[in-house]
Write a structure and sequence with these properties.
This protein has about 60 residues and is mainly α. The protein has helices at about 5-20, 25-40.
Length: about 60
């Protein structure tokens, strides 16, 4: 992505790419494993920065 692209163009590009992403069973298992290894408990926060489809939110 070029630095001079408009926010609208960036958003369109992201939406086009994101439509092909999926939260497969394997991705969900890996996210659950990460949460368990990190010891994250209900009520705690996790900052998920550009690390995929957001599967950890599930």
């Amino acid at each position: 992505m070029r630095m001079d692209e408009s926010k609208e163009t960036q958003s369109e590009r992201f939406n086009t790419l994101a439509s092909g992403w999926s939260n497969s069973d394997e991705a969900i298992r890996q996210a659950e494993k990460a949460v368990n290894v990190l010891g994250i408990q209900s009520g705690q926060s996790l900052l998920d920065v550009a690390s995929g489809t957001g599967v950890i939110l599930h």
